[in-house]
Design a protein that fits this description.
Strand content: under 5%
Number of helices: 5
Radius of gyration: 20 Å
Distance between the termini: 19 Å
Oligomer: single chain
Order of helices and strands: HHHHH
Mean pLDDT: 95
Number of domains: 1
Number of strands: 0
């Protein structure tokens, strides 16, 4: 099982590193839009769609890696003061209540949404460019699936964790 967990961790790290390169076209697209809009009074029709699609892809494809590294933002008022045993119990309860049910529903519905987008040829309605939303829907589904899988790995590691760790 340890090899499977390492494989999942490495896969999510690879996806994260690949997705991080999306910042390059995002920056160039935004730079071009700013220059065109304010320098030449000629805004683009595609910059808004490009921005939310690239940023959304970066966000969802990086979320599993961030969870694996325990780097998600959290408000910690009491948790840090708890003993390791109490932290473990809290982690298990919170995963069972607040992580798995919503994530399972999100993954399930995101695939339904991606299939629907594919079937109807869904397009963005935010401008005249109207790019296909199918790639974004698929990326969201894959990213959420990887987050759910990584969450399961983290959950099992928490269960196996001893008080000495």
């Amino acid at each position: 099982m340890k090899n499977l967990f390492v494989f999942i961790d490495k896969t999510n790290e690879l996806i994260f590193k690949a997705a991080s390169w999306l910042i390059v076209p995002l920056i160039f697209g935004l730079f071009y839009e700013v220059v065109a809009r304010y320098g030449f009074k000629a805004p683009t029709v595609w910059a808004y769609d490009l921005t939310y699609m690239l940023y959304g892809a970066m966000f969802v494809l990086g979320s599993a890696y961030v969870l694996a590294r325990n780097k998600h933002i959290r408000v910690d008022l009491f948790y840090e003061k708890f003993s390791k045993a109490r932290q473990r119990v809290v982690d298990i309860l919170l995963y069972c209540i607040f992580f798995f049910p919503p994530m399972a529903l999100l993954v399930w519905k995101s695939y339904d949404y991606a299939i629907f987008a594919w079937e109807v040829g869904e397009r963005s309605s935010s401008g005249s460019w109207r790019p296909s939303l199918v790639p974004l829907r698929i990326v969201f589904s894959v990213g959420m699936t990887m987050l759910l899988i990584q969450g399961a790995v983290c959950f099992i590691r928490i269960i196996r964790r001893t008080e000495k760790e």
